[in-house]
Amino acid sequence: MQSWIEAFQGSIDFMERNLTDDLDIEKIAARAALSPFYYQRIFGALCGMTVGGYIRARRMTLAAQDLAGTDAKVIDIALKYGYDSPDSFAKAFQRFHGITPSQAKEPGAPLRSFAPLHIKVTLEGGNMLDYRIVEKAPFTIVGVKRPFNSDTSYQEIPKFWDEWLAQGEKRPIMGTFGVCTDMNGKDFDYWIADLYFPWEDIPENCETRVIPGSCWAQFPCTIKTLQDTNTKIWSEWLPSLQGYALAGDYDIEVYLPPEEGSQDMRVYIWVPLKKA
Fold first, then answer.
1. Suppose 60 and one of 77, 79, 88, 96 were both cysteines; which one would form an S-S bond, judging by CB atoms 3.0 to 4.6 Å apart?
2. What is the DSSP string of the chain?
3. In a structure prediction context, what are the per-residue pLDDT tens digits for the chain, which is 276 residues long?
4. Under a CB-based contact definition with an 8 Å cutoff, are residues 100 and 67 in contact?
5. Per-domain residue ranges for the chain?
6. 219 and 229 in contact (C-beta within 8 Å)?
7. Could you check whether 2-104 and 132-275 share the same CATH topology?
8. Taking the C-alpha atoms of 159, 248, 150 and 61 in order, what is their torsion angle to the nearest 10 degrees?
9. Domain 2-104's class?
10. At what angle do helices 51-69 and 2-17 cross, to 10 degrees?
11. What are phi and psi of 201, to 5 degrees?
C-alpha cells in the first residue's frame, strides 16, 4: 500500500514542481502509473477536489505571494501562471481571494492560501466493504451518451439522469447502466444504457458500444450510499488491493429492480481489473 501511495504523492509533487508550466494530465497520471481516467477518479476520492481545481488553487496561492512580495507587474504574473490576459487572470484571482490583483499589492491585503497536498493513509479501525471478483465475457450496451468534464460531472450527470427520467414512458431504454468511457484529459462520455442483443433494433437516438471481457470487482450499494461506496473504492480498497491492477478506461454503475419483498433498487459499482 505504501508504494502505491508514494507513487500518487509523486504525481502531486510533480504538479508542484511544474505549476508555472502547461500541466498535462497524461504526464501527471503517468507519475502514479495510472491512466488519466482512473487518476482523476482516485484524485477526487482521496483529495475531495478535481485535479484542475487543485492546480488552480495552488497557482492562485503562489500568484498572490508573488504580487504581495515582489514588484512584478500583474500582466507578468498572469502569464507566469498560464493566463492569456490580465482580465481572465483578474477574474480568477478575485473569485479565489475576494480582491483584485492590484489590491493584493497593498500592505496588509487579506489573501487566501491553499497548501500543497500530502497524501497519508492511516488505519483507524476496519471499514467493511463488500465485493466479489467475477469474470465476464464481452458484452454490448445500447443507450444515449453525453460528453462531460470531470470538473463539473458530479453536478451535471445527475441532471442528465433527471432529463432522461422526465421522459417517462417515452424513454427508449430502461437505464440499467451508467457507464463512464473514453476519458480524454478532463473530458469523457457518460452513457445511460441497457444490454444490447444483436437481434434487437437500435432505438432512435441511441448508439451501441462493446465493453471488453474482463475481471470485474463488483461492489453492492444503494442509491443513497453510491457516492460513499465510490469514495471508499478509490481511497481505501484500491490502495490495499493485491494481485490485481486496474484495467480499461471505463467503469460501470448497475441499477437493477428490487428483489421480491423489497422496495430498494439493487445498485452495484463495477470496476474492471486484470491480474497484476
1. 96
2. -HHHHHHHHHHHHHHHHTTTS---HHHHHHTTT--HHHHHHHHHHHHSS-HHHHHHHHHHHHHHHHHHHS---HHHHHHHTT-SSHHHHHHHHHHHHSS-HHHHTSTT------PPP-------S------EEEEE--EEEEEEEEEEETTTHHHHHHHHHHHHHTTGGG-SS---EEEEEEEETTEEEEEEEEE--TTSPPPTT-EEEEEPPEEEEEEEE-TTTHHHHHHHIIIIIGGG--SEEE-SSEEEEEEEPPPTT--SPEEEEEEEEEE-
3. 456 778 889 999 999 999 999 998 889 999 988 888 888 888 887 777 889 889 999 999 999 999 988 888 999 999 999 998 889 999 999 999 999 999 988 888 888 888 898 876 654 445 567 888 899 999 999 999 999 987 778 788 889 999 998 988 888 888 999 998 887 667 889 999 999 998 989 998 899 999 998 899 999 988 888 878 888 888 778 877 778 888 877 889 999 887 776 777 889 999 999 887
4. no
5. 2-104, 132-275
6. yes
7. no
8. 160
9. mainly alpha
10. 40
11. -75, 150
Residues pairing with 184 in the sheet: 187
Does the domain at 132-275 match CATH 3.50.50.60? Answer given as no
Nearest to 247 by CA among 210, 213, 209: 213
pTM of the model: 0.76
Reading the block at residue 175, the C-alpha cell is 437505464
- Which of 108, 70, 64 minimizes the C-alpha distance to 89? 64
Residue entry with cell 509533487: 13
pLDDT of 207: 93
CA triple 225-6-125, angle to 5 deg: 45
With beta carbons less than 8 A apart as the criterion, state whether 59 and 157 touch.
no
